Amino acid sequence: MQEPQPRFLPLAAKTVVCHTVTYMLMGALAAHFLHYEQIFNQPNSGLRPFDSLWIMLGAPLQIFRGILFASIFYLFREQFFGRKNGWLRMAWMLIGIGILGTFAAPSGSLEGFIFTTTPVLMQMRGYLEIVPQALLLSALLCYWINHPTRWLNWTLGALYCVAVALPMLGLLARAAGAKTP
């Protein structure tokens, strides 16, 4: 007998948590090892400055993308959850449609390789962040759905709180420093 499939709200909550935690982890690693501050702050980079309010709100705002992902995962829940290698199916869907095959022409997509002037190797550099994040998100979410435990709920909930709180504390510290004479 197959495991019961997750309902939407618990799936959405777990997707938001897993996505935000993996986003923050991979983003922090990429920011350090791929020198994002230098890249973001280059004139004409097309990116907001690294110390921008919007960049700092990146992790807390992932609630919206997490809900979007959950709405898609929910439609394919029988393919992803309670199945051997369901996480690989989910990861391939994220990588195939969300990264490589997107309709737009962002860096690293098939369209990006065709229509942008950014060198291919520079575009592929982003894979070091986004492909592992897709794999981590898929593996973590599928594991959590398939093996729900109290310790996992508390651990991932705490990590989510840290991922959301750190940028908010950074913004508060910046605001307090601006007011200090």
Q: How many runs of DSSP E, i.e. beta strands? A: 0
Distance between the termini: 67 Å
Radius of gyration: 18 Å
- Report the helical percentage: over 70%
Helix segment tally: 10
Integer count of domains? 1
Q: What global shape is seen?
A: flat
Order of helices and strands: HHHHHHHHHH
Label the structural class. Answer: mainly alpha
Topology:
Layout: H1 8-33, H2 36-40, H3 53-56, H4 62-75, H5 77-80, H6 86-100, H7 110-115, H8 120-124, H9 127-146, H10 150-179
Helix pairs in contact: 1-4, 1-9, 1-10, 6-9
Task: Provide tags for this entry.
181 residues, mainly alpha, transmembrane helix, transmembrane, membrane, 10 helices
Verbal overview:
- Helix 1 packs across helix 10.
- The protein is mainly α and 181 residues long.
- The protein is flat, with a radius of gyration of 18 Å.
- It has helices spanning 8-33, 36-40, 53-56, 62-75, 77-80, 86-100, 110-115, 120-124, 127-146, 150-179.
- The protein has one domain.
- The protein has 10 helices and no strands.
- The relative contact order is 0.16.
- 71% of the residues lie in helices and 0% in strands.
